[in-house]
């Protein structure tokens, strides 16, 4: 018992000492819960939005998006990002609804704090990286989009924007989604430059973020954010210190035995 306490104490001390100043590690946000990222359309603070539109309505009780943003999230080439879903002919409605839901999650969720990272981009100061998307949400997204067409596997970069909305660059040919995204993980992880990292956990586990949820049961992502805020090494995004700390935890018992 005593050695376990010593081990724990040592670990905490080591973590505190290293966490305080690690060269090259951007200062982590102090508040990971109930926050909005500093990006293009997010509100400064989350709060109630009684009339959020259709697919964004699950976030009505507490949202980072305005009503305007929630309406625009449902439009093609909306004022949000001028993004053209139909860049290789019409995207199937069954597929498009996942992109609308993905936009609602990104714009509205106040539960992405543990995955917010600073970026040096002209249009936003923060992004999310490695959000552990529940495996079923990714699987269904991929299945519903298989038969739609696209010309790229990373939709953040490399478009031709000369017309004011994104079009396929000349060298990128249109193929079915499953050509550019052979697996569900390829779709969810690659499409937005690793904003998501598909989780091995499933819906309802409390360990992965749900893009789709029934608000009458509450927002299941609150618990997920709380878990990863308290256990930053247990999941999808090692924050630089993660792997080292893990190593230390493995080594400490050996020191103590000697
Ligand atoms: C949302 O706001 C933008 C900028 O003010 C405006 O151009 C757009 O028409 C608004 N959309 C809706 C649905 O009100
Ligand atoms: C951020 O980008 C600007 C302009 O591209 C550049 O001048 C600056 O050095 C960059 N800062 C960092 C920390 O990379
Ligand atoms: C963890 O320790 C092993 C050897 O015990 C080493 O090879 C590995 O690079 C270490 N990993 C990290 C992230 O420090």
In words, what does this structure look like?
InterPro entries: Folate_rcpt, Folate_rcpt-like. It comes from Muntiacus muntjak. This is Folate receptor-like domain-containing protein. One of its GO terms (biological process) is sperm-egg recognition. One of its GO terms (molecular function) is signaling receptor activity. With about 260 residues, the protein is mainly alpha-helical. It folds into two domains: about 1-20 and about 240-258, no CATH class; about 30-235, no CATH class. The chain is about 35% helix and about 5% strand. A two-stranded antiparallel sheet has the order 1-2. One 2-acetamido-2-deoxy-beta-D-glucopyranose binds near residues 68, 71, 72 and 79.
The N- and C-terminal alpha carbons lie at a distance of 17 Å
What series of H and E elements makes up the topology?
A: HHHEEHEEHHHH
Q: Which percent range describes the beta-strand content?
A: 5-15%
Overall number of structural domains: 2
**Number of DSSP helices?**
8
Tell me the structural class: mainly alpha
The spatial strand order of the largest sheet comes to 1-2
- List bound small molecules: 2-acetamido-2-deoxy-beta-D-glucopyranose
User: What is the CA-based Rg, rounded?
Assistant: 20 Å
The number of strands is: 4
Q: What are the low-pLDDT stretches, counting only 5+ consecutive residues below 50?
A: 16-27
Determine the fraction of residues in helical runs and give it as a percent range.
25-40%
Shape: globular
Mean pLDDT: 85
Please summarize the sheet with the most strands.
2 strands, antiparallel
């Amino acid at each position: 018992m005593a050695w376990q306490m010593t081990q724990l104490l040592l670990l905490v001390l080591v973590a505190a000492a290293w966490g305080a100043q690690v060269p090259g590690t951007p200062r982590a946000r102090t508040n990971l819960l109930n926050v909005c990222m500093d990006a293009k359309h997010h509100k400064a603070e989350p709060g109630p939005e009684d009339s959020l539109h259709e697919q964004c309505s699950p976030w009505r009780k507490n949202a980072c998006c305005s009503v305007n943003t929630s309406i625009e999230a449902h439009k093609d080439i909306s004022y949000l990002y001028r993004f053209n879903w139909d860049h290789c002919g019409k995207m199937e409605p069954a597929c498009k609804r996942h992109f609308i839901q993905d936009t609602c999650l990104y714009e509205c969720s106040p539960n992405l704090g543990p995955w917010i990272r600073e970026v040096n981009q002209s249009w936003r100061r923060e992004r999310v990286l490695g959000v552990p998307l529940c495996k079923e949400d990714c699987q269904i997204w991929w299945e519903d989009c298989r038969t739609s067409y696209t010309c790229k596997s990373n939709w953040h970069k490399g478009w031709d924007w000369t017309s004011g909305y994104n079009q396929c660059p000349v060298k990128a040919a249109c193929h079915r989604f499953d050509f550019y995204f052979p697996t569900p993980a390829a779709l969810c992880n690659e499409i937005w430059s690793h904003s998501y990292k598909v989780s091995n956990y499933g819906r309802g586990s409390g360990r992965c973020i749900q893009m789709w949820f029934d608000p009458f049961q509450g927002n299941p992502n609150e618990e997920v954010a709380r878990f990863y805020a308290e256990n930053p090494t247990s999941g999808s995004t090692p924050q630089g210190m993660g792997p080292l700390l893990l190593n230390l935890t493995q080594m400490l018992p050996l020191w103590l035995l000697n």
